[in-house]
Amino acid sequence: MTRAPFSVTAAEALPNAVKACVCSGETVAIEGFGQRIPFAAVHEIIRQRIGDLHLVRMGVDLVGDQLIGAGLVSALTFSWAGNPGFGALRRFRAAVERGQPRSLTLEELSHGSLLAAYRAGAAGLPFAVTRSFLDSDLVAHCSLVAPIACPFSGERLHAVRAIRPDVAILHAQRADRMGNVELRGVVGAERYAAFAASRTLVTVEEIIEEITPRPGSVFVPAEVNTTVVCAPRGAYPSGVDGYYDRDDDAYAEWDALSGDDARFARWLATV
Amino acid sequence: MAGDGLTPRGEEAVKRAAELVARYDSLFVGVGIAGRCAVLAQRLNPALTVVFESGIVGAALSAPPRSISDRRLYERCRYVAPQEEIFDCWLGGRRIDAAVVGAAQVDLHGRVNTTVIGSYAAPRARLTGAGGAPEVRPRRAAVVLLAAANGRVVESVDFVTYRLPDDIDRWLVTDLGVWHARSGEQRLVAVTP
What we know:
The complex is a heterodimer of chains A (about 270) and B (about 190). Chain A is α/β, with parallel strands linked by helices and about 270 residues long. Chain A has helices at about 10-20, 40-45, 60-70, 90-100, 110-125, 190-195, 250-260, 260-270; strands at about 25-30, 55-60, 75-80, 105-110, 125-130, 145-150, 155-160, 165-175, 180-185, 200-210, 220, 225-230. Chain A has a single domain (about 10-110, about 165-255), classed as 3-Layer(aba) Sandwich (Glutaconate Coenzyme A-transferase). Chain A is globular and about 55 Å long. With about 190 residues, chain B is α/β, with parallel strands linked by helices. In chain B, helix 2 links the parallel strand 1 and strand 2. The radius of gyration of chain B is 16 Å and the shape is globular.
């Protein structure tokens, strides 16, 4: 695994890092559940028009809506799609309901089963096992889910195919010069997405010489991080514990902006 | 924000749902209106352990959360678990007594739709999807809370996102009244005047 040299100024490093890590047509996992959402990296994908992506994301919120609205997503594996606290995602709905700007192939799971699929991918297993789809119509519409029987009891269960993205993209609090990344707050899929992926791009608030682990913090080790870029406020308008809080007004603003085709087009041209 | 602008009957529904879940020791709380219900429930039962799918265990709620990843939630809680602990251990392991969730559409067979109105392939309205709700299998009771029933309680849902377990108390609480079901038996227990 090759590791790109770290840079300390996002303005020059991030475009190159995104160009090196993310290719058109790839499966891209973007994680961060309500917090530490890698907005800066996603905006760079949009500026470079890296398209035909298969986006994997548990909670498809503003970053997903922006990529979908930009027409860069052709397939979506997800478990929820909304603007947290404000309701629907306008560009996602336009794509699914009207094929604008393009239609999406949906692979739809639940939060727990998608997280389990990342963990199976990280563990090198072919599938995860879940009870979440008993009597659910989702099974008939998702190629990642198949019924199985427990080999011991015969209980009816479902297998969820492991997810191994080409690239995982995360945002975290800190990294050291070796590429070890520390994150804290709400933690879930991001580290498993990183272990499951072929490459991982991490943006961080700061890069320091050496990290003294804080209680309750979680590490994504240097071994799985391909590129780490210092991008202060790179998760704005989502929050980063210890650095800044979510900007609720920006989430409200997205609700209004994304529902207006002309305003969205202007946003897209200037992102 | 979610839950704002409720009608007086909607407020009454939230209050009734809170009274139902406050009698338990632990409560899983969904997004939106469920957060508002949880605040009232914890006022009635300060010992209620409130759990969110974002990993928050034992939140001390003072106001409805802005989102389930709200910083105010994890700054005042017993601990923040990795999300897999919530899905695998608390929910999968059935360590939760009760749950309160919202929905777009429900029927009286315990089937909940948060996926599409119309057909899946060509929906009239695309909804947010499942989230963590299919993982929620509380030990004792599940409350689906609709502040405005408004045609959302139907004979048969357009799409079964998930089905609530049959062997627990299932409550459907709306601005019109309260419906209870368990193991094939069901009845209307209250009507909002």
